[in-house]
Each structure stands twice: as structure tokens, then as C-alpha cells.
Amino acid sequence: MQFKRAGRVGFVLALVASTSVFAQEREDRTLLSQTQMTSIINEVSGDRAMQHVLELVPYQRVRLPGDYDRNFRETQVIVDFAREYGFANVSVSTFNDEARAFQPTVGELWLTTPKSIKLFDIHDIPLSLVSLNANGDLSGELVDVGAGRAEDFAGKDVKGKFVLTSGTTAQIYNLAVERGALGVLGLSTMGPQRAIDYPRSIVSSTVTARPGTVAWSLTPETRGYLEALMARGEKLTIRSVTKSTEVSGRSEYVHAEILGDGSTKQEVGISCHLFEGVIKQGANDDNSGCALILEVGRAYMKLVKEGKLPPPKRTINFQFVQEISGTNEYLNKHPDKAKAMIGNLNFDMEGIRLTASRATWLMHRTPDTFPSYLNDVGQSMLEYVADITRERVRFRRSINGYAAAQPVESVHGSKDAFYITVDKHYGSSDHVTYMQHGIPSIIYNTWPDMWYHSSDDTPDKQDPTQYKRAAVVTLGGLVALATGTDELATRVAAENLARGTSRMGEAQEKGLGYIADATPADLPRAYREAQNAIRHQAEIEKAVIGSAAVMWTDAAAGRKRVAPFAPLIDRRAEALLAEVKATYQLASAEHGVPAAEPTLTAEEREAATIIVRRGPNVPAPGARRAPPPGPNLPDEYMAEFQILVDRGNMTILQMRDFLSGEFTPLSLAELMATLKAREAAGLVTLQKK
Fold first, then answer.
1. What is the value of pTM for the model shown?
2. Partner of 629 at 20 to 30 A CA spacing, among 88, 179, 581, 672?
């Protein structure tokens, strides 16, 4: 009996030991070693990142005219911290030095009758004054024009008066002043629901005021108050007092580096935007990104110094820029850097408390027009942190107990779940600019952001725990990019191959869904779309594994090492296509129709003979593009559509198949209508082969 009990105890101890060894599942593995990731987790500080934000933008403020004659506050904060932390080659550069701009110094909006109430002061809410160049002391009656459409002005005398509208200030301004109005009191929100949820918020907007006029944005709450007074028959009069001064309109950015060891000419980038204009100042958009990467750099250098991380072979370029224009300025000025960079990580809106904003932390992949190894580096780190920070019920009786495998939390932060999403490409930040210069770049951000571009984008919405988790993801990915060893290159290529297998399976799943949902008459078309989805993804995966060659510091050697994977991916695609064909035959038999091979329609045959090229009226690179003439494709297609047009040399059918493969089946008629509209505007040319 004693022997059996001892044996049972021994078995339990062995089981516990086994659990502690094997509880490290797939979720707990990534491109770096567990020891390295633990060092990163222990060092990066969400509280330090939060402190950076509080130094950068403690509150939204009216800049003093003298601020334009020296480094802006944000610039100087980054420079001081970067030098203190030991970054190399810290520098401030300016561009557009001859430009001029306006800085409001006084801005007060008053209700004067039936009673005296100061409605807004720019020193309370800087974003309330929309016309930055307005000067004057203006008084007049307030007239409600509802939504502010042209027909809403009919029969209303607005000359010498202020206009109240539920429309957007910037959109209504010209309609009002053309009819003699002194100014506009409008709304600027992120839509009706957010106006309800956040009635005291104003979203940033600007207009250039005509002499003797002014434009203000109201909070939904204030607009509702004025509307209620008018509804009960009150006559309202308004007084606007504004002063502005002309200042330098120059832009500036900060560059800093962590130097590589000189063994390679390859470099990597990590970026944020410190400015999005200088009137708008956002804690999350995007001082949070700058606060984050500053902390990532500090922790990296400290861990290298302590011997816990390998020193980087590749120089790391930290960019704190004016959004998009600053990135363009730097890369155009330093083409050697653009040529040397093998990848960039971009951070735009990182620190918000996810649960407070109903948000997830998103990683947007590069588009299929720019397939890259980089996506899987980022995704690997993102999923790793999400997995180790959640409590897994199947481990509840192990040594972890009822707890996360490895909590990643800040002292002053939340204990919220880490909500993440890996999403398709989306533009509108500096990652797009890097790709335009031939550098693969992914972006991380939080969305939705309930206070995006608004007067409420302030540090109190931030979460140090979110910063810490973001910093772990970021530093892990940056180390994988910058270390520069062939061993890590092999790991990355293996990651690409494995995740590519999943993506090809997802393409098959998408295609099988088309077949399952098809009517009997549409089965051949659904089968063709399923084939297209798999073939498209196979081409992307071959390009992804090929792009990993740059991870070897000898890229030519890297190309030879990854070349054997391409035919294997083709073989995998053939197997998936065979399964799709079998499913198509099964579905056809169930519907009692023949499993005919799909053939091109007459329209498709014609589309296969027409090549799409850029037209003569396309704006120069970097120039502002006017809204394209309609009709347009659905939003999700448009960024890729424009890239394919700009590249040229693709037939209409190839373009349709590419967009359908990346997203969902696109109507050829819809694509043709969009191309014809652009052809009429000189934005594309459609040429027969």
C-alpha cells in the first residue's frame, strides 16, 4: 500500500514537471528565444512611455508666436530624451523654411443676447477656432440654416449675420460667406454616434477665412443649447473676437540612430509622426507612437549593454516626423538611407486604453501589391504577447494556476485583456510613404479611437499597460530585423513558409465558401473565383518567401537559399486546387448540373486584351490628388486599385483577378465603369495589346 502511494505521488510529480516543460506551446514561441523575450518584458516600461507623453503633450495648448522661432516643444522633448538615453546622430532638420502660417493668439466666442455667456475660448479648446487667420471683433444675429445645404439657405437673410448649422463648419463656410454671412458656427465630429457619445468633443478642421469673416466649430452640446434657445423663440446675437499673427510655416523632424556594427550596409527603420500640422496636438495621434519608440530604443540599448540582447548589425533609424511630408523629405534627402533600409515599423496611435475606446490594437499588413516577409515578423510578436497575457483555462491546474502564462502589465496600468487584430493594408500614414520609396513597412495602431483628431485626444485616455505590451511587440520585432544573423534569417523564412501555408488555406476556405453559396447556374463562376483566390495567394506567398532573402546580410546568398520554396508552394497550390475541383464536382452533382469547366465571357476576353496605364493628367509624385471622378470601387479595393493603375502594364482582366483574389470577387462591369470615368478625366489610358 505504501509502495503504491509513493508510486502515485511520483507519477503526479512527474506529471507536474512534464506540464511545466511542455506548457510552453506554440503560443509561447516566437522569433527570439524565451530568455530574450523575458528580458524584453522585464525591461520595457509602459510608465516611462506614459511619462514621455506627459512631457510631449501634457495638454492641448495655444502655441506662442515665439514658439515658431525655435524648436517646438515636442521636438525638444524628443531630442533631450534621445541624447540622455544614448542614441547616436540625434539631429533636428527643417523644411519648407520659407512657408508662412497663422497662429491664433486670441479667440473668444460669446453669446451676447438674451444673456452674456462665453461659449468658447481657444485657451480652453484650441480646436474650436477653425479659421486660423481670422482677425476682428464681429457681432451679429444668429440664423439657423439646418444642415447647411444650398437649399437650406433659401429664403433666409444671412447677410451681416452668423450662421448656425448642424453641418460641418469647413463645408458650410463658403456657402455662408458667399451670401454675406459674418461667420459660421458649425459642427466637427466623427459622425452622429460619436456626437451622441462625446457631446463635448470637437474634431480638428481648418478653413482660410476671407477678410471680415470667421469660422468656429461648436461641441454638439453647445450647438444643441443654442438650437433649443432659438426653438423657443429667443433672438440670439453672437460676438466673435479673434486675433492671429503670421508665423513661420516651416516643418521639422527629429532623426536618431542606434548604430550597427559596420558589418553590413543594410539598415532598418522605425517611425512615428510627431506632428500633423502644429495646431492639432494629439496624445494618442500620434505623440503616443513617438513616446513608444523612444522607450523601445532606450530599452534596446540597455539590454544590449547588459548582454541580454545581441548588438544590432544593422543601423536602426528612428524617425520622429511631420506626418508623410517629413518622411518624404528625409528619404528624398537621403536616398542612400532609402536604398539601405530593408524594412520599417510604423507606429501611429498606440497608447489608448483599448476597453475605454472599444478598440483593438491593429497590425496592418503590407498590401498584396507589396508582399513582404515583414508581415510575419510583426504578426509573430503580436500574437506572442496576446497569448502569454491571457489566462488559458486548460492550464488552470498547472504551475500557472488561474493566471496568465506571463503577465505583461505596468505598475500604473490596467489589467485589461490585450485585444489584437491582424488586418489588411490601410493607408493614410507614414508606412505608405516608405513603401512608395521601395521599403516594406507595416503599421500598428489602435482603432476605433473615440477621440481621434479631437479636443479630447489627451493623456488621460492612455494606458501604461497598453504601452508596455506594444513595446514588447515592437522591440521583439526590431531585434529580429536588426540582429542581422543568418540564423535569424532562416527563422524568418520558416515563419513566412508556415504562415503562408495558413494563408493559402484561408484562400481555399474563401473559395469553397463561394462554391457553397452559389446557385446551380452560378457554380462555374464560383469555381473560377475559388481557383483565382488560391492562385493569387500562391503567387503572393512565393513573393513573400522571395522577399525574405534580404534578411541574409548577403542578399544574393539569401535568394539562393529561399529559391527552392517556390516550386513547393506551387505544388501546395495544385493540391488545394484539386480539392476545390472535387468540391465543385460534389456541389454540381448535388444540384444535378454538369461540372463544366469555367470559360471566359465575351466581356472577359475583351478585358484580357486591354492594358491599363497611367494617363496624362495624373499628378506628379507627392502632389495632392483631387478626388477622383465617379463611379468608384468600394473602399476596400481603392488603395490597391490605384497602385495597380500607377504601375501600369496590367490588363483589365488581370487587374480584376488580382483585386478579387486579394479581397472578394469584383464585378468586371464595376471595374470597367470606374476605369472609363478615369479615362475620360485623363487619369488612365486604356490601350489594346
1. 0.92
2. 179
C-alpha cell at 356: 475605454
| CA neighbor of 272 nearest in space, from 74, 100, 62 | 74
Parallel/antiparallel/unpaired status of strands 237-248 and 251-258: unpaired
Last residue of a domain, one of 209, 231, 247: 247
Residue 5 lies in a domain: no
Q: Read off the pLDDT of each residue in 266-293 and give the average, rounded to a whole number.
A: 96
pLDDT of residue 13: 35
Q: Provide the pLDDT for residue 25.
A: 56
- Cβ distance 461 to 352 under 8 Å? yes
| C-alpha–C-alpha distance, residues 331 and 434, integer Å | 8
A 10 A CB-CB count for 81 gives 23
β-strands 117-121, 100-113 pairing: antiparallel
Distance CA 364, CA 423 (A): 5
Residue 1: inside a domain: no
Position 400 scores a pLDDT of 64
Query: 237-249 pLDDT, tens per residue?
Result: 999 999 999 999 9
Residue 220's contacts (CB-CB under 8 Å, 6 or more residues apart) are 187, 189, 195, 196, 199, 200, 201
State the Cα–Cα distance between residues 385 and 361, nearest whole angstrom. Answer: 12
Residue 400 belongs to a domain: no
Q: How far apart are CA 493 and CA 614, in angstroms?
A: 35
Structural domain of 670: 602-688
Is residue 151 predicted with pLDDT exceeding 90? yes
Angstrom CA distances, 13 to 9, 21, 392, stand at: 6, 12, 21
CA angle 188, 192, 198 (to 5 degrees): 70
Q: What is the 3-state secondary structure (H, E, C) of 193-254?
A: HHHHHCCCCCECCCECCCCCCEEEEECHHHHHHHHHHHHCCCCCEEEEEEEEEEEECCEEEE
Give the CATH number of the domain where residue 63 resides.
3.40.630.10
- Domain total for the chain? 4
CB 148 within 8 A of CB 188: no
**Cell match 492671429: residue?**
244
Lookup: cell for 182: 459674418
492, 469: one domain: no
DSSP code, position 673: H
SS3 percent helix, strand, coil of the chain, rounded to 5, is 45, 20, 35
CA atoms of 361 and 353, how far apart (whole Å): 10
- 170-208 pLDDT per residue, tens: 999 999 999 999 999 999 888 788 888 899 999 999 999
- Cα–Cα separations (whole angstroms), residue 433 to 441, 570, 615, 621: 9, 32, 22, 11
Q: 3-class SS at 132?
A: coil
